[in-house]
Design a protein that fits this description.
7 helices, alpha/beta, single chain, five-stranded parallel sheet
Amino acid sequence: MFIEDIKTDFYDVLLGNRVLLLVHYDVDAICTCKILQELFKCDNISYTLVPVGGISELKSAYEENNEEIKYVVLVNCGGTIDLVDILQPEEHVVFFVLDSHKPTDICNVYSDGQVRIVYKDSEENIPNFDDIFRDDEDEFLYR
């Protein structure tokens, strides 16, 4: 699902909670991370920072650091893969994805709230939920 209000639906949710910050190695991610670190410092948000370079590093970083973590922020990583399927988190864990890589994985877009995408690209053509996840048996019944 996409975040509508970045302050209320993203940052305010993190206040007072421990955050796992998974950051890709690229320049944009590092700059974003530095900004988040300063914001976290100002608001006394404790976090664990782990740099990741690919899916295997992302998976191992999550597995090694997910104890007592409810919120995971992924910076320039995780948006193009089905996070819930690959990381298999507990139901209470929420992922906030800040990823400029495209295409955004459709399972992340239509997540019931466990995956929250902070950035929406208006040019990205995202199909309707029913067009992707409809039951093909219904089609045959109405023909």
